[in-house]
DNA sequence: CATATGTCCTGAGAGC
DNA sequence: TGCTCTCAGGACATAT
């Protein structure tokens, strides 16, 4: 489930395509269902073929390939099982898109193709201009990147909400990049109960949450993301991430808490998604 | 407006 | 053993 750390790992993994020209875009017919490429495949090809990738960026949980003057850009949205790859994909049948790359000048290390692979096919790739980018991914749609969020930003954007803090952290309009896995992990590290209404958090909690978020996300990036037991997530070279070995609560129900050693990790369901937490580290009511 | 629910999809695992 | 069923959760559409 690519969240900010996995998508950032993808971005870094394919940064070496910067400067390459997209010679051809090929929608792979071997997939069960072709990837959704915005409205029109012909339009996609026309708009990307012959263009130069001038930088590789990330916005929330999406990878951006900036083209030429930076007006047009390819948005890659992996959602659940999407991968961006320079190496051979895990399976042939779920390969959705292939960008054939050409290098200008002496660039021996630059890969010849960039692949989009997606087992479940919920992800999408589209090309947008600056206007459409603003409409779809601008400030009205996405909050500040989670790596740049300060305690004040989190408090200002969430403190009026009656929602549980864990549910609110998944709202990309509040803060961009956090998903189901890292929401549990950062709340655990901040010692905040996941069901706590945002409006009940105090300023000390926002401080704790902000620093916990940075620690968890940066640690996860350092380990190149989390490859869960289904093995889906891989980096651009088709290698597993390592942060799953450092999860303290996620998917660890019934295990003892690695932080306090006394609590037993519990699983609850919030908004039809699993949440994991330690009842000892994250009490529903804080002792004062 | 804020919040909640339903939808898409595939493969793993459970249960019989 | 092989079938059916449930579940996982990203973002968005629709409902309350």
How would you sum up this structure, described in words?
The protein has 288 residues and is α+β, with helices and mostly antiparallel strands. 24% of the residues lie in helices and 20% in strands. The protein contains 7 helices and 10 strands. The protein has helices spanning 4-13, 41-48, 130-137, 151-158, 165-169, 180-189, 203-222, and strands at residues 21-27, 53-59, 62-67, 73-77, 82-85, 95-102, 113-118, 124-128, 266-270, 273-277. It has a 4-stranded antiparallel beta sheet with strand order 1-6-7-5, covered by helices on one side. Strands 2-3-4-8 form a 4-stranded antiparallel beta sheet, sandwiched between helices. The chain has a two-stranded antiparallel ribbon with strand order 9-10. A hairpin with a 2-residue loop joins strand 2 (53-59) and strand 3 (62-67). Helix 1 (4-13) runs parallel beside helix 7 (203-222), helix 4 crosses helix 7 (203-222) and helix 6 (180-189) crosses helix 7. The chain is globular and about 60 Å long. The mean pLDDT is 92. The chain binds a DNA duplex (16 and 16 nucleotides) through loops.
Task: List descriptors.
single chain, 288 residues, alpha+beta, 20% strand, DNA-binding
Summarize this, please?
The protein is built from 7 helices and 10 strands. The protein has helices at residues 4-13, 41-48, 130-137, 151-158, 165-169, 180-189, 203-222; strands at residues 21-27, 53-59, 62-67, 73-77, 82-85, 95-102, 113-118, 124-128, 266-270, 273-277.
């Amino acid at each position: 489930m690519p969240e900010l750390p996995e998508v950032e790992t993808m971005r870094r993994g394919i940064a070496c395509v910067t400067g390459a020209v997209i010679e051809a875009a090929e929608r792979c017919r071997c997939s069960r269902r072709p990837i959704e490429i915005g409205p029109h495949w012909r339009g996609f090809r026309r708009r990307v073929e012959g263009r130069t990738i001038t930088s590789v960026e990330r916005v929330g949980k999406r990878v951006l390939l900036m083209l030429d003057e930076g007006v047009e850009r390819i948005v890659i949205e992996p959602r659940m099982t999407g991968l961006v790859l320079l190496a051979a994909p895990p399976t042939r049948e779920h390969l959705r898109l292939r960008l054939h790359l050409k290098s200008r000048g002496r660039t021996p290390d630059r890969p010849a193709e960039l692949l989009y692979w997606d087992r479940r096919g919920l992800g999408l790739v589209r090309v947008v201009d600056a206007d459409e980018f603003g409409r779809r991914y601008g400030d009205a749609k996405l909050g500040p990147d989670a790596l740049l969020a300060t305690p004040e930003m989190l408090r200002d954007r969430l403190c009026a909400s009656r929602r549980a803090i864990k549910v609110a952290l998944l709202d990309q309009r509040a803060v961009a990049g956090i998903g189901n896995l890292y929401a549990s992990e950062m709340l655990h590290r901040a010692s905040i109960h996941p069901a706590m209404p945002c409006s009940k958090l105090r300023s000390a909690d926002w401080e704790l949450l902000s620093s916990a978020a940075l620690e968890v996300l940066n640690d996860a990036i350092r380990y190149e993301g989390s490859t869960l037991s289904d093995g889906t997530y891989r980096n651009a070279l088709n290698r597993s991430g390592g942060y799953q070995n450092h999860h303290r609560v996620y998917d660890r129900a019934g295990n003892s808490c690695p932080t306090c050693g006394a609590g037993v990790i519990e699983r609850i369901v919030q908004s039809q998604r699993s949440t994991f937490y330690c009842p000892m580290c994250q009490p529903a009511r804080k002792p004062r």
